[in-house]
């Protein structure tokens, strides 16, 4: 099937109001500009909309054949052979979800490249809690710390750190640029110190950093919501005891799939305490 003739040809600047990782797919307060419109063409029951440009990214929703869509931008991703074309481009829709352009019948105009790396927050199942009861002392990708991919929670040394939901421990690591994770770290070091990652349902991975000693769980261990993973410390690149906590949409956890833990928990009705 070839691209349809022009359906819509509005131009415009792209999504200037979007911020990194702060817009849940189903509660996006902004309205990104529409670069193109199109229609889903799928021979199967539905095309999955994803949190990122790959079939391994978390599923956000499903679009049936004939669904009209509004595209805000495109990005390079997994190469897909589809019903309309074969391409490595994925379209980011105005709800921040991604679909392969291989299943989109649309006009042939150039769609602008995505200039922000928004990752949509999917609906998640199960019950959730906060990892520690403590004040929020540093936020996610703030103006002062644009590469801070998690939140810092000001818990005291030896506070128990709990799995925020059921899952499987996928990583237990000492990560420090020199020396040991069994001693207090410092700002002159790099690394997360002793840390744990837990994989949950719906491709969510949570990460817990700077533990005081080797975590109390092991890789492959199935944990419940509330299982103690380890204890608060200040190992690795850390200037004092706290929990650095990250949420990722997709495994493995990378910088590109980190989302705001504040926004993620807000969707679940949970709020980090004030410092
Ligand atoms: Zn941190």
Automatic annotation (TrEMBL):
The keyword Signal applies. The keyword Nuclease does not apply. InterPro entries: Cell_wall_metabolism_enzyme, Dup_hybrid_motif, M23ase_b-sheet_dom. Residues 1-27 form the signal peptide. Keywords: Signal. It comes from the Bacteria. Residues 147-250 form the M23ase beta-sheet core domain. It holds the Pfam family Peptidase_M23. Gene3D superfamilies: Glucose Permease (Domain IIA), SH3 Domains. This is M23ase beta-sheet core domain-containing protein. It comes from Winogradskya humida. The lineage of its organism: Bacteria, Bacillati, Actinomycetota, Actinomycetes, Micromonosporales.
């Amino acid at each position: 099937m070839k691209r349809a003739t022009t359906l819509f040809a509005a131009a415009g600047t792209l999504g200037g109001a979007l911020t990194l990782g702060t817009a849940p797919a189903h509660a996006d307060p902004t309205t990104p500009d529409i670069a193109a419109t199109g229609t889903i063409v799928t021979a199967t029951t539905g095309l999955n909309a994803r949190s990122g440009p790959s079939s391994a990214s978390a599923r956000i929703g499903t679009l049936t054949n004939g669904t009209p869509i509004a595209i805000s931008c495109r990005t390079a991703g997994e190469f897909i052979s589809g019903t309309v074309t074969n391409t490595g481009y994925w379209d980011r829709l105005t709800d921040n979800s991604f679909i392969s352009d291989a299943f989109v019948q649309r006009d042939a105009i150039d769609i602008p490249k995505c200039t922000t790396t928004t990752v949509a927050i999917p609906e998640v199942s199960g019950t959730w809690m906060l990892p520690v009861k403590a004040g929020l002392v540093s936020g996610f990708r703030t103006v002062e710390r644009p590469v801070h991919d998690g939140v810092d929670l000001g818990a005291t040394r030896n506070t128990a750190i709990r799995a925020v939901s059921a899952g499987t421990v996928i990583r237990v690591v000492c990560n420090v640029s020199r020396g040991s994770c069994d001693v207090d770290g410092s700002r002159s070091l790099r690394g997360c110190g002793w840390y744990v990652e837990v994989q949950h349902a719906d491709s969510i991975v949570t990460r817990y950093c700077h533990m005081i000693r080797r975590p109390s769980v092991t890789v492959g261990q199935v944990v419940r919501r509330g299982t103690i993973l380890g204890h608060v410390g200040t190992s690795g690149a850390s200037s004092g005891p706290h929990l650095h906590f990250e949420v990722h949409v997709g495994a493995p956890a990378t910088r590109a799939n980190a989302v705001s833990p504040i926004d993620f928990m807000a969707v679940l009705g949970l709020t980090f305490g004030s410092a």
